[in-house]
Design a protein that fits this description.
55% of the residues lie in helices and 8% in strands. The protein is mostly helical. About 8% of the residues have low confidence. The structure holds zinc ion. It comes from Halobacillus litoralis.
Length: 114
């Protein structure tokens, strides 16, 4: 593990999703897999209990999606670049959103709606 990675792991702001029932910490890839299922209901692989995305976490996801969507729209409206670049920016935006979402993921043992 590089020094930078160690700093990230102990650094402030870096949080991994933690199961509310058994307190197991999920790795980035586990969180990512759960997100890929695109369900609000998530099952902890350590204890098998149902977990849900917390209201705070759903809110962070929504805000991040809006920021990325608006940045893309702004880029589209204010630059004269070929359509291929627009598509690349769009894919990058989606990728960025999915890669960062496990860090924003917060689990709750009860279903919370925005
Ligand atoms: Zn658990």
């Amino acid at each position: 593990m590089s020094k930078k990675e160690k700093d990230i792991n102990k650094g402030r702001g870096y949080k991994v999703p933690t199961c509310r029932m058994c307190n197991s910490k999920w790795s980035w890839s586990q969180a990512m897999k759960q997100q890929m299922k695109l369900k609000s209901r998530i099952v902890c692989k350590y204890c098998g209990h149902r977990q849900y995305l917390s209201e705070k976490s759903q809110c962070k996801h929504a805000v991040l999606s809006i920021i990325i969507a608006f940045s893309l729209i702004w880029v589209f409206n204010n630059t004269a670049v070929p359509i291929v670049l627009y598509i690349i920016f769009f894919i990058l935006g989606i990728t960025l959103l999915s890669l960062t979402s496990p860090f924003l993921m917060e689990l709750s043992s009860e279903k919370e709606q925005l």
